[in-house]
Amino acid sequence: MIRYVRVSIGTAAKLGLTKMKMLVEPTTAYLMMYYPGKCMAQCSFCTQACISSTNSSYLSRIIWPKYELNRVVNALASSKGFKRVCIQTIVYPNMISELFELIKAIKSNVELPISVSIHPRGADDIRGLKELGVDRIGIGLDVASPQLFNELKKPFKWDRTMRIIDLSVKILGEGKVTCHLIYGLGDSDRDFLETIYKLKIKGVNTSLFAFTPMEGTPLEKSRPPNPSRYRAIQLAHYLIVNGIASLSDFKFEDGILSGIDIDRRIIIEVIESCIPFITRGCPGCNRPFYNESPRGPIYNYPSIEWAKRDIKLIREQLRHLLR
Hints:
It contains 11 helices and 14 strands. By secondary structure, the chain is α/β, with parallel strands linked by helices. Helix 4 packs parallel to helix 6 (about 160-170).
């Protein structure tokens, strides 16, 4: 029987489990499976694969303290303002059975849709989640090209992961599976956009993250992506998933997105809406400051209102695509 669950610090503050000043409150309650050891996967960018005394409580740049499960569930049951629960998993023995136990505990007390971020082992895991009433699953593809994926996501393999994604869509349905992609790990812009397009064809949503170098990981000395290049990818992502542009409309120089061959007025209208630049995830997910300090640079804005404050900066960041 599981005793503890980890809670993102912003969620913990909103639940009244700790005190912290928040510029933006999370609209999803973010939980993570508790395990005292390190994740058995060896993703080169993840703190959970490289646990040390300095980073064991982190996932990306967010602290995830542990709390007693009953305390968290009771706080969730009486809380207001959350639109869903999102459970992050790591790979360890008995994770699936403990995950199912956690979902049952939440479902018996909380009337919110549940998403699970997981790398399923096969059909039984996916069907089990569906039978428990999980609303959506997120699969950490993270890397957009096969060779780099196999280098950075050990022991996972690109071909098997793609089969798992296809199987997840078959069992859960189109629009119920999201793949996480991290920009800045070394993929070319062309590879990144081609993968977004291929996932769209499969009926898979994509959620964009910016690479965040973390101490204790093999990539700790790497640099986060250039904000202008990330902003261009967000814009292109929006145009692709909404059917406004096709792959042939994008121009590249040395693999870097350099132009978009559609009506300039449409591009400007999309930029001014600020919709492409907010957090992309499950419905109700705003994931505030997961990839960045509130001081900036901001990669994923937690709301349209927050993005509109930076519209002059956003225009400048995308000026090279409007020449």
